[in-house]
Every structure is written in structure tokens, then in C-alpha cells.
Amino acid sequence: MQSIARKLHYLCRSDEIGEAEAKGFGPFDGMRRKIILTRQKGVLYAWLDSCPHYSTGTPMAWKTDAYLNGEKTHLTCHSHGALFEIDTGECVLGPCLGQRLTAVDIALSDEEEIFVATPAEEEIK
Fold first, then answer.
1. What's the pTM?
2. Is residue 87 predicted with pLDDT exceeding 70?
3. Do residues 86 and 72 touch, judged by C-beta distance below 8 A?
4. CB-CB contact of 108 with 10 (8 Å)
């Protein structure tokens, strides 16, 4: 089995992502999409900014960092109105019902810095 090389990229400090907040970072190293970083109930989650409704993916925010619905309970694709669970990435409303966002690995340093391991393009299908 061939391993897929990943690169770590600095996103921000942990205290720069508040509870029920989401921000976009990137895209990194030729990737077509940004990384969405969000916090819910104190836990950080990272997702690829790509709605699974179309095979090519569609960016979810209609303006900078506008990834959450008005109640800040779900990630939202503003192109389709789809709602996604923040912790699982599962679509619970909209044209991609039952599909999921692509999770992205993150790491937290001892200094509370957040890094992302960007997925290889082969993993983003």
C-alpha cells in the first residue's frame, strides 16, 4: 500500500475560534477548496469547504466565513440550503441528504496553535 504525503499548515491559535464560530482557511498548495474550522461544545472540527451535492463540489459560504446557519447549529451550503451536522458532517436537510462533508485532520500544538493536515487530491472525491 502506498502512503499519501500530507503537509501541515498553520491555521490560527485555538482562542481565535470561538464557540459556535466557523472560519475558512486556504486554499493550500494548489487545493481548489478552503478548509472550514469550527468549534462546537468546546471541540474543534475541520471540514473541506465543498458541498457533496455536486461531484465537483461547491464552496459552501456565500461570503467570507459565512458557514453557519442563523442559529449557529449547523454548517450550511448557501448555494443549496443544505444543513450539515457540525460534529459529523452529515447532511440532515437538502439535496445531499445522507451524504457527508469531507473531514480534514487537525492537530493542536502545546502552544495552542492549530495545524491542518491537508488531504491529497486523491482523497477529495
1. 0.85
2. yes
3. no
4. no
Cell of 33: 477548496
Domains of the chain: 7-120 (2.102.10.10)
21 contacts 14 by C-beta, under 8 angstroms? no
pLDDT digits (tens, 9 = 90+) for 33-77: 899 999 999 999 999 999 988 766 788 988 889 999 999 999 999
Rounded to an integer, what distance in angstroms lies between the CA atom of residue 36 and that of residue 27? 10
Determine the Cα–Cα distance for residues 66 and 3; give it in Å rounded to an integer: 35
CA distance readout (Å), 66 to 22, 24, 77: 8, 9, 9
Q: Are 11 and 114 in contact (CB under 8 A)?
A: yes
Cβ atoms 91, 54 nearer than 8 A: no
**pLDDT over 60 at 26, yes or no:** yes
What are the backbone dihedrals phi and psi of residue 9, each rounded to the nearest 5 degrees, phi first? Answer: -130, 135
Q: How far apart are CA 53 and CA 28, in angstroms?
A: 23
Check: CB of residue 71 under 8 Å from CB of residue 77: no
Computed over every residue of the chain, the mean pLDDT equals: 87
